[in-house]
Automatic annotation (TrEMBL):
Transmembrane segments: none annotated. The keyword Ribonucleoprotein does not apply. CDD domains: AdoMet_MTases. The keyword Transferase applies. This is Class I SAM-dependent methyltransferase. It comes from Mixta tenebrionis. One of its GO terms (biological process) is methylation. Residues 73-125 form the Methyltransferase type domain. Keywords: Methyltransferase, Transferase. One of its GO terms (molecular function) is S-adenosylmethionine-dependent methyltransferase activity.
Length: 244
């Protein structure tokens, strides 16, 4: 398995239009994301990356939506996704539509998103499936230099592993196929062989558990422990007297 961090130069597409059938991918992804976006609530939604900025999120209940990227007409805040200019635990949801696919350090992006997300906040990840017919195109000489094949494709199992390390619970995941010249063909594969779908969708929720014991519980535990120790000492004295 190749390491997540890479030093290779990645030609990042500034728009879905910069790749073959990109607008079809964008429209299909926006359509499949609507049920997920409809269940989000809160105050702030971040759309990280140029491709995320073009995803239709009008039906999302979160009214304040901000697009973040290094450049682009759809971007509202110019910033590096590796260094988001937001306070810790200040954002309710983050959309990363194929953001990890053209990142040199996807782990760092996930940690930065984790930093700005509130407890129980949502992270939506999308990307191309390496096990799909589209993913197999990376094996064709010359084709791997063009988008979307020049991007990185991570399997759902690998993403699940990364999210579990950050203590995220994956509440929804799916794959679907896009066939720009035959929509019915995409539906057939998505319905009957979803594992071969070219696009992954994962929705994860940030879970936090209280690891520090409150002072009241700590004192209560210490009192019970002392009482048990004293009882043991008294029992030993009685045993010594009987034996004597």
């Amino acid at each position: 398995m190749k390491p997540a961090k890479t030093r290779k130069s990645l030609a990042v597409p500034l728009s879905w239009r910069d790749m073959p059938w990109g607008e079809s991918f964008r429209d299909a992804l926006s359509h499949h994301l609507q049920p997920c976006l409809g269940k989000l609530y809160g105050f702030h939604l971040l759309k990280i990356g140029n491709l995320s900025a073009e995803i239709d999120t009008q039906n999302c209940a979160i009214s304040h939506q901000v697009s973040v990227g290094e450049t682009g007409q759809e971007v509202q805040v110019i910033a590096d996704p590796l260094h988001l200019p937001f306070e810790a635990k200040s954002v309710d949801a983050c959309l990363l539509a194929h953001t990890l696919s053209w990142s040199h350090d996807p782990h760092r992006i996930l940690r930065e998103v984790d930093r700005v997300l509130i407890d129980d906040g949502w992270m939506i990840l999308t990307g191309f499936n390496p096990l799909s017919l589209l993913g197999m195109g990376k094996l064709i000489p010359g084709l791997h230099r063009r988008a979307p094949w020049n991007g990185r494709m991570f399997s759902q199992m690998r993403l699940l592993d990364w999210l579990s390390l950050l203590n995220y619970e994956v509440v929804y995941r799916s794959r679907f196929q896009v066939v720009p010249w035959n929509r019915q063909g995409g539906k057939v594969i998505s319905t009957h062989v979803p594992a071969l779908g070219c696009i992954n969708i994962m929705v994860a929720r940030k879970r936090t558990l209280p690891l520090t014991m409150t002072p009241a519980k700590k004192r209560a535990g210490q009192v019970k422990l002392r009482a048990t120790v004293n009882a043991t000492r008294q029992l030993r004295k009685l045993e010594d007297q009987d034996s004597g």
